[in-house]
Amino acid sequence: MELPVISNAPPALAGGCSESGCGTAPDALAHLPDHIRAKVQDHPCYSEEAHHHFARMHVAVAPACNIQCNYCNRKYDCSNESRPGVVSELMTPNQAVRKTLAVAAAIPQMTVLGIAGPGDPLANPERTFETFRQLSEQAPDIKLCVSTNGLALPDCVEELARHNIDHVTITINCVDPGIGAKIYPWIFWQNRRIRGVEAARILIEQQQKGLEMLTARGILVKVNSVMIPGINDKHLEEVSRIVKAKGAFLHNVMPLIAEAGHGTYYGLMGQREPTPLELEALQDACAGDMSMMRHCRQCRADAVGMLGEDRGAEFTLDKIETMEIDYAAAMVERAKVHREIADNLEMKRALQRAPKFDAPARRADPPASRSLRIAVASKGGGLVNEHFGHAHEFLVYEVGPSGHRFLGHRKCTPYCMGDTSCGDGETVLGQIIASLEGVEVLLASKIGFEPWADLERAGIRPSGEHAMEPIEDAIRAVYDELAAAGKLDPAPAEVAARAA
Ligand code: CLF
Ligand code: SF4
């Protein structure tokens, strides 16, 4: 398999995501003990590096939910782990197992099977655990992963451990019942519907108890939080501190999705979503020395493929019924592909650790330049390899004199929906430019004449010069060129900070 050429990128920015173990630097997992590293290095959600090379899939076996969140309409996917969009097919455990084997045979990079909805997996324990039971027997090379609101978690910890599920996500939006009452109108608990602050108190207690029980058993826990401006945005730093103290491995602060068309309470009430810059600021504030996840794509509950892509249409029930699956043979091929990826990544790490002879005085004495945000169009593999007009999202990096860090992605409607239909382009282009708030440079494999001119007018420098280059090399080259040309003089605040 082709992997990106080795990057000479310098260490990440101080305090950045890479330093805290979730970043783009190849050695981002180096500080972890071997047994933890083995658990996360090919999990696309738990390792930012892995998501460039490994895929995940979800099976939608869990229709019911035991709580109501104000950002959810269960006609749509669970917002804990999804973007709104109706689940195409609800499945039985048998169908889910067949689909998983079919995908794993066809996409050997698929390392993780998650159950994340469309309701709450642990509110559907028979369906969820039957799926896990069959898969742990038939496909022992697939990691099993589950995402839950946490209400039923303490009762399920033993069974999760029995099925070797060593990655659990709990969505924790608050630790204060007063705030929780504004997020959860009710829960269904011990055969009763409970409302208000009492409902939130029970939910919070169950979530915290479940978190403690899981970490005590060595199961890796990721905490997801939905950022809801004006409701819990000021409170999530405290949530981060508490879940970290209880042993959560990773915190993933996601933006609220509240479009009126989805029919959710927040959507209908006009609750606003956070802007990308507000989200970044909160993620930075929560980070401290805790690993933050910044590459989450808020997947559908039936997503298939690399994060950010969905190949579900290739594996519909009617299609997988006709597929011949020899899973024993597939496991041999899968092991080979995983070894190749691991070897390539190890070589990349070794080269990065080696002394650099081409280097630069720049690194010893970086130019007094400010940092800047660069957006990259990529369809995976860590390369600048997507046409501007086809991009569904842009990856945003902050690059400074001595390093870079991944900040997150900005979703968009592709400017050019097909080879002939760039029709509605003006509106879409305006939306894309608005979504790139704070970005100064945009890299893509190609950019058309019209968007090029509009991007420039909006103060964003477009560039197609780094097509097919590894992202880390490309953003470093762009930064160095601008700095050398004196176009990145430090902002007055940065000068003052350096002087201090
Ligand atoms: Fe699925 Fe979630 Fe497991 Fe990943 S997704 S159950 S941990 S395998 Fe990943 Fe998707 Fe974000 Fe979830 S990008 S929504 S964090
Ligand atoms: Fe919806 Fe998930 Fe909340 Fe249940 S836990 S109401 S499915 S977002």
Supply the CATH architecture of the largest domain: Alpha-Beta Barrel
Give the ligands present.
FE(8)-S(7) cluster, iron/sulfur cluster
**Domain tally:** 2
Decide which structural class fits the backbone: alpha/beta
DSSP summary, beta strand count: 15
Termini separation:
48 Å
Reading side by side through the largest sheet, how are the strands ordered? Answer: 9-8-5-4-3-1-10
Helix fraction, binned, reads 25-40%
Folded structure, characterized:
The protein has 500 residues and is an alpha/beta fold. The protein has 2 domains: 34-320, Aldolase class I (TIM Barrel, Alpha-Beta Barrel), CATH 3.20.20; 370-499, Nucleotidyltransferase, domain 5 (2-Layer Sandwich). It has 16 helices and 15 strands. It has helices at residues 34-40, 93-106, 125-138, 153-162, 177-180, 196-216, 236-245, 265-269, 276-287, 317-321, 327-353, 361-364, 425-435, 449-457, 471-484, 492-499; strands at residues 55-58, 67-68, 110-115, 143-148, 167-171, 186-189, 192-195, 220-227, 250-255, 304-305, 372-376, 393-400, 403-411, 441-443, 461-463. The strands form 3 sheets. Strands 9-8-5-4-3-1-10 form a 7-stranded mixed beta sheet. Helix 2 packs parallel to helix 3, helix 2 crosses helix 11 (327-353) and helix 7 (236-245) runs parallel beside helix 9 (276-287). The protein is globular. It starts with 33 loop residues before the first helix and ends with a helix. Iron/sulfur cluster binds next to strand 2. FE(8)-S(7) cluster (CLF) is lined by residues 45, 56, 58, 81, 112, 114, 116, 145, 147, 167, 169, 252, 296-299, 307.
